[in-house]
Each structure stands twice: as C-alpha cells, then as structure tokens.
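Subject: sequence -> structure tokens, single chain

Hey, anyone have a minute? Need the predicted structure for the following. Not urgent.
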Amino acid sequence: MSAALLAIIYLAFVSLGLPDGLLGAAWPTMHVGVDAAVSWAGIVSTVICLGTIVSSLLTNRLVRRMGTGVLTASSVALTAAALFGFSTATEFWQLVLWAIPYGLGAGAVDAALNAFVATHYEARHMNWLHCCWGIGAAGGPLLMAAQISHGAGWQVGYQAVGLIQVGLVVALVLSLRLWGARVAGSKGGETDAGRRAVSRSRMIALPGVPQALVGFFCYCALEASCGLWAPTFLVLGHGLDTGVAALLGSLFYAGITCGRFVSGVLTLRLTGTQLLRLGEAVIASGVATLLLAPCEAALAVGLVLLGVGCAPIYPQMIQLTPTRFGTDNAQALMGLQMACAYVGSMAMPPLVGMAVENASPLLLPPVAAVLLAVMTVCLGICDKRTAATHPSSAM
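Reply:
Had a minute. Here:
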C-alpha cells in the first residue's frame, strides 16, 4: 500500500505543477484578450499567493481535522474549478476572482503533501516528487504554447489542465484509505488527525527558523519572478516571437525537472547542505549567462542553468525541516514556511512587473542575483545555528 500511495503522491505533484507556468506562458497574448496592461499579471499572481498564504497557515489545523488525504482531494477539486473559471474569463476582474479559489487550493496541497513526505519518506523521494512538480510546471507552458501556436487559444490550455486536475481528484478519492494506513504504520503510530497543535511563537523561537523563513521567501520570490516574467523578458527585452518565448520559458521548468531527478540520485552521496550550496552556484552561473547572453541559444542555456540550480534548493529545505527542527514541529513549521514562501511569490512578481513595464525588461537577471545573494547568506546562518543545536541537521 505504501508504494501505491507514493504513486498517487507522485501524480499529485505533477498535477500541482501543471498550472504554475500557465499564466506566464499565456500572458503575452492573454492580457490582450482581457484588456489588461502587461504588468497586471502581477495582480493575478498576488491574489493567488494571498490565497496560498491563508491556506498554508490553516493547513496544520485542517490536517488534524480532515487528514492529509481528504484535504488534498478537496483542495485539488477547488483548484480544478478555478482553472475552468480562468478559461471562461473575458475581463480582467474575472481572472482576479478565480485566482482566489486557485490559491486556496494550491496552498493547502503544497503544505500538506510536503510535510507528509518529509515525515514519512526518504530524501530521494522529496527530490523526485519535486521533479514531478517540475514535469507539470514544464508541461503546462508546453501545452499552452501548443494551443497558442495552433490557434486554439489560451482558454483551451486552461481547460485541458483543468481536466487533468479532475482526473487526479478521482484518483485521490479512490486512494483515501491508503493515507491512514501509511501514517498508522509510521513510527509512533499517530494519524494525521491526531497531531497536536504547535504554536507559531514556539516555531519562530527555534534556532535557525527566522533564517529558514527568509530563505523560503527569497527562493520562491526568485522562482516565481523568473517563471512569470521570463517569456516577457524574452519578448520585450530580446525581441523574440511570443510562441518562441513561451517555448523557451518552459526551459526554466525543464531545468528544474531534470535537476531534481539528478538531485534525488545525489542525495545518496551528498548531504542536504552540500546540495544547497551546489544549487546556489549553478543559479549564479545561470544569472550570469542571462546577463551576458548574445543570442537566442545563450538565453536558452541561461534559463536551463537557472532551473537546474533551483532544482535541489526547495525540496532540500523542506526535507531538512524534521531533522533541523524536530518531527513533532514539522507540520506546523511546514505551514509557516509555505506561507513565507508564498509571500515571496506574491510580493516580488508585481514589483518585477512594474520594473519590466516602466524601466526595462532586462532587469530580471539582476533581481534574481540579489535574491540569490540574500538567500545564500540566510541559509548559511540557518545551517550554522541548527547544526549547533541538532548536529544531525547537517545531513
């Protein structure tokens, strides 16, 4: 049953990633259809992130009441409904409205599944599961690019992803009994619904937690900004065709996908901290390539490197949560970490959008460089403080 449940979780991560790149891939044509300014994609992204922040902070309580399986199935159903709503939008305010349920559903799935996997499965699974997220995140823009290139329109792209989400809801409902069986067989034998509540003030007081939260903020700010604005950066900054830009934009997510598969293998030889440092170095090389890119091929290489560098960072920060801060604190802290991550995803894309529209689309790589620098410093401090308290946290 454990293998069957793991397969369902893998599918859930693919489905979780599918919608993430859709808005960025569709926006160069989508904003015309809903009569919106280029920078207004940041507003939609902000509303989505607000929803994810709210649901992430509530996830610990919801998991204790509903269990991870029921919460995941309900949240994916909410996300599917929102995607179909996006496909029917003819005005910008309708996109904003449907962004609310999309964010609420996505945040609960992310926090609940990440805590469940970090607690019950090995580190390689966390990387490979987030590789599955990357498959979805890369596949979404590819699907959208195909619809735009063949004249079907961005609406059909959203409908196709919505149908995939519906299929996942069916699979999750059929697998509900497996979730309880997995938790009951774990150390301690407690169920999701039986976990005790842990106060946020206690979480923040733990050594290294503030720095970890800033690390989540910076990483997701970087990833969200690059994922959303990379196609626009290519179109407005380098004069590429919109279809080509959508295709190249998917290379960022393709790099994340391939990198996370490799990271899962590397967990057998490298510690979590070593993987984090490696990822930061590769991100730096990707940013430098984008800054100096003389041609379309170099831009493609830069986006791939950026994605490959991002690959191990998020899953390793998540996987290290129980060993750094204790298994009993993992679920509550995961929701707090996800909330900070989504604040980063919410706050930075609108700011980058204003810079793209009012200053220059070429500012995207410098912004990524600043976020990388802050993240690297904070995660380094977190490693030192948690290692002093829990030596095993360096694993």
